[in-house]
Design goal:
The protein is mainly alpha-helical. The chain folds into 2 domains: 2-45, DNA polymerase, domain 1; 51-120, no CATH class. The protein has 6 helices and 4 strands. The chain has helices at residues 2-13, 19-26, 36-45, 51-64, 76-85, 113-120, and strands at residues 69-72, 94-97, 101-103, 109-111. α1 packs antiparallel against α2 (19-26). The radius of gyration is 17 Å and the shape is elongated.
């Protein structure tokens, strides 16, 4: 199973495989005593909030009228689960998931800004302007 994970994980994390496909390759390539849904729930249950950090970010946002952007290196489904489960959209204005990044090396991340704008259907406005700054 570990070898299958090593082969498929980067493809999954970059958004080229959905969780269902990833699980078929890495876990459910042979019969199991548990279902995919049970495994998904177990996997998601391993994610735990960090309440002190959540409170810190909420307080900083309120105190300084900040816009908060969260960048996650998790794949889409786990990121979506966390956003919903921990009600992160209540205080985070914008989410960027690893499927929007191209990893150039271990120390340099190149952001594909056109892809971000296209996927999120963002337009420039006087209220919210994001410009790449690398």
């Amino acid at each position: 199973m570990e070898a299958r994970h090593n082969i498929a994980f980067d493809t999954y994390e970059l958004g080229k495989l959905m969780l269902e496909e990833y699980l078929n390759i890495t876990v459910f390539y042979e019969p199991r005593s548990f279902t995919k849904e049970e495994f998904r729930q177990f996997m998601f249950s391993q994610s735990q909030p960090y309440p002190r950090m959540i409170e810190l970010v909420k307080n900083l946002k309120k105190r300084y009228a900040l816009r908060i952007v969260a960048v996650s290196n998790e794949a889409r489904e786990l990121n979506t689960y966390r956003i919903q489960e921990y009600k992160l959209a209540g205080f985070i204005d914008f989410f960027i998931s690893s499927t929007l990044f191209t990893y150039v090396s271990l120390t340099l991340i190149s952001i594909n800004w056109q892809l971000i704008w296209r996927r999120l259907n963002l337009t420039k406005s006087s209220i919210w302007k994001m410009r790449p700054c690398l």
